[in-house]
Amino acid sequence: MRVINRIVYFLADYVNFLRISLIVIGITLTITVNLQIKDMVLPIVITTVLTPFLIFYLLDSIISADFKKLTKKVKYEATKYSEVIMLMNCKQEYLYLIEEEMAKKRYYLIATDDGKKTVEKDTVHINNKIRLANNEHKVGFTDMEYIEVKYDENLPEYKRNLFDQRMRSKNYKYKNQLNIINYVSKEVLIGGKMHKNNQ
């Protein structure tokens, strides 16, 4: 079972899956052309091209279910955040001197009720919302909430690596989330909605 699980995670890696798919498609098309089965060329080509997409969809569903089961979301009250650029921690000194630009990474520093969180920018989805001010929240008040994705402590390295990859993807369902609510006046809220509708 563990071997099968490792194979699933290996294939679910975008790069590995693409490489293997291209090899399989190339071999299949070469065999088809060499056998000169003219009537079967089109169906074989369509099947060969579509099959990897279906397989990857199945693999993605397995990884998504695993991600949901092996991670938990922890909510924190946040007060502010800022974007910073840091150098990657690397023992090789030449990296700082010659390849400094390549070594830079962007992070968010998020102040929460559990202390400051330093989070890789690509792993955070910022969700901005506008709401009407009320007695509790005056005009100009900003309410922030940080939701951190935490891995299971016993998560194997190969799963951790793939989860990290998914958190850096454009799919926000895998990411940490920073919810920002800005409270505005009725005029601003109506004006914002009108502007959105006119776009």
SSE order and pairing:
Elements: H1 2-12, H2 14-35, H3 38-70, E1 71-87, H4 93-97, H5 100-103, E2 104-112, E3 115-120, E4 124-132, E5 142-151, H6 157-167, E6 176-184, H7 186-198
Parallel strand pairs: 4-6
Antiparallel strand pairs: 1-2, 1-5, 2-3, 5-6
Helix pairs in contact: 1-3, 2-3
Written overview of the protein:
This protein is α+β, with helices and mostly antiparallel strands. It has a domain at 2-70. It has seven helices and six strands. It has helices spanning 2-12, 14-35, 38-70, 93-97, 100-103, 157-167, 186-198, and strands at residues 71-87, 104-112, 115-120, 124-132, 142-151, 176-184. The protein has a six-stranded mixed sheet. A hairpin with a 2-residue loop joins strand 2 (104-112) and strand 3. It is elongated. The N and C termini lie far apart (52 Å). Mean pLDDT is 82; it is low at 91-99. The chain crosses the membrane at residues 7-29, 41-59. Keywords: Membrane, Transmembrane, Transmembrane helix.
